[in-house]
Amino acid sequence: MRRAIPYLRGLAILGVVFNHANWHVLSRFTAGQAQGYPFVVFDQLGKFAIPAFMFITGHFIAYTTSGGKHDLRWQVIWARFENLLWPWLIWSAILVVGQSFQGRSISLAEFLRNLIVQYYFIPLLIFYYLLAPWVARCARRNAGLLLAGAAVVQLLAVALFYARVYHPHFPGVLKSWVDLGPLEYLRFAFYFPFGIVCGMFSARVKESLARFKPILPWLTLCLCVFSVVESVMVYHMGGDVWPIGGDQTRLSAALFSTALICCFVALDKLPMPFSRTINELGTHSYGLYLCHYPILGIIAKVIQHATPWVASQEWLLLPLLFGLTVALSMLLMAGMSRLPTKRFYRYLFG
Predict the structure, then answer these.
(1) d(CA 185, CA 91)
(2) Counting C-beta atoms within 10 Å of the first and last residue's C-beta, which end of the chain has fewer, N or C?
(3) How many C-beta atoms lie closer than 10 Å to residue 292's C-beta?
(4) Number of folded domains that form the chain
């Protein structure tokens, strides 16, 4: 599984950047508009990213316990918090300044919105880090029961999400509670414990998945198609259903993500094209996640003003936004690490 983790991490951060570049294009269309359907399909390609990162985080937690031989120390958790904190605060502030050029105010409310909503993966991660000592102990005592319990919690949270999206009489006052905070975080409840269990009992997990190895890639493909079909249906319905109904925690997207992660666990010796580049991107995934938002926005504005024709051609705009955002983000981090400013690198990129 050691080879699988770096590849999964690199593909996951590429999925994040591609998803956000795609949403920049997709947001131009009104739900149900024919030109938007291809981009709805593309939208599914990045849906596995957050589940994959949660799985990888759990795997890291298992590593710090020497495969479950020792208890998880709180010093490890605090060290992770320190690594997350300053870059999170700084880039949220940078984003506020960038948003001010689009007519939004520079205010504490905008800053908090960036912290909690724009960079919502970080509070999600902190939430599970706080649970990590308890989850790690449960994994050591009864891994099967832990995973079954986590799966039930996630399914219940996803069911609540469906009620919020589709039930006509769902209380409006409760919608924000379902969309933000712990109730939203529980829609990822399975992946973090699954990562811990795979890290502690990798041989047992691989043995359990061995019988499914021939069908896992096909199952993953089928579930990806299932996710596409559901997302297309939601886009077609429009109204109050899109885009919230196209969230990455839909049942179809969750099943696709789980199957894809299981592929990496069971088939970790598969050759990976561009493996060195993907591994390098994965190594810098936190910094890439933080800085790609403003860089993506700047590139989009430059293209819009410098080459309006390209900006109007969605099929050209999407690959340009994606490729340039990844390249310029990596160049920014490389420059910071090699110039005299390198002493500030950890505060900007972790």
Answers:
(1) 22
(2) N
(3) 24
(4) 1
Q: Could you list the residue range(s) of the whole structural domain that residue 119 is in?
A: 4-349
The C-alpha atoms of residue 242 and residue 290 are separated, in whole angstroms, by: 26
Closest CA to 237 of 30, 39, 20, 42: 30
**C-alpha span between 121 and 115 (Å, rounded):** 9
Taking alpha carbons only, the member of 171, 149, 148, 147 closest to residue 160 is: 171
Q: Is pLDDT above 90 for 85?
A: yes
Which DSSP state fits 180? S
Residues 6+ apart with CB under 8 A from 63: 199
Burial class (CB in 10 A: 0-12, 13-18, 19+), 14: buried
**Tokens 């800085």 map to which residue?**
291
Q: How far apart are CA 119 and CA 112, in angstroms?
A: 10
Render pLDDT for 19-29 as a digit per residue (tens, 0 to 9).
999 999 999 99
pLDDT in tens, 210-254: 899 999 999 999 999 999 999 999 999 988 899 999 999 999 999
CB atoms within 10 A of CB 244: 14
For residue 118, count other CB atoms closer than 10 A to its CB: 16
Least confident stretch, 37-51, 172-186, 287-301: 172-186
Phi first, then psi: what are they for 274, rounded to 5°?
Answer: 55, 35
